[in-house]
């Protein structure tokens, strides 16, 4: 019983951390610019994960043939993904952001079919259609107009598609390297990729930089809990429960984010938003059940963010 409690406690806590990441970003963004948040988050995460890998002795050697995949992996995520997600969240609420990002598994399933010929059953396609309908319910007004800034939606979907590219590339590496090691390596490469962006967009704002306890604490939480701790907890759960049973918990992220945002950020949770959210989640469940092929370890790192 104790083992079961630890296992399910780990996967639930990982989902809580990833759900909170949308809220922590909104809090950090009250004072700090998106790219500043991203860069500090990556730096702190690399320090944390490197220490973890050093303590546990899990550093590995990258094969020469796999270097290009690590570079592509880091380009998709964190580089493009964080640009899309971070700037997108400046235009929409954390709840809307979490719902849109939660469609990553759907597009990843489509990409898997296109690139790896992973076939889906009819119920999976039905789930994809239902989830799209849920997103429309969430973002459209009754007269058919957008209820949210189109820039935010486009940027968030950029994050979604970059996450799909990340997932497809990760399929080349997941069987050969430890998931935590992969995350640490692509975060290190991400820091290098972001450096020119930081030099161009953020250096000129250094004179505006100020230390705010609440917002900087949110960045620390993003690094510790969302970018580091959640991956470790989820990896532990996957070893005990398997990928399929563990991954299904990711569908709870939009619900948890909406609830946390309601209590912490005082975001309004209307009946329309709640209905759209439930439809998206229902579609996500349908899109992931009864697959012919067993889901691989690649999904340990897919469909999240933070």
Estimated radius of gyration: 19 Å
- The parts where pLDDT drops under 50 for at least 5 residues are 292-297
Quickly count the domains: 1
Question: What overall geometry do the principal axes of the alpha carbons give?
Answer: globular
Percentage of residues in helical conformation: over 70%
Mean pLDDT: 82
How much of the sequence is in beta strands?
Answer: under 5%
Q: With helices defined by DSSP (H or I, 4 residues minimum), what is the helix count?
A: 12
Order of helices and strands: HHHHHHHHHHHH
Written description of the protein model:
- With 306 residues, this protein is mainly α.
- It has one domain.
- The protein has helices spanning 2-28, 34-56, 67-88, 94-101, 104-116, 122-139, 150-170, 179-201, 213-241, 243-247, 253-264, 271-288.
Keyword list:
306 residues; single chain; 12 helices
Provide a compact summary of the structure:
This protein is mainly alpha-helical and 306 residues long.
Write the layout of secondary structure elements.
Elements: H1 2-28, H2 34-56, H3 67-88, H4 94-101, H5 104-116, H6 122-139, H7 150-170, H8 179-201, H9 213-241, H10 243-247, H11 253-264, H12 271-288
Helix pairs in contact: 1-4, 1-9, 1-11, 2-3, 2-8, 2-9, 3-7, 3-8, 4-11, 5-7, 6-12
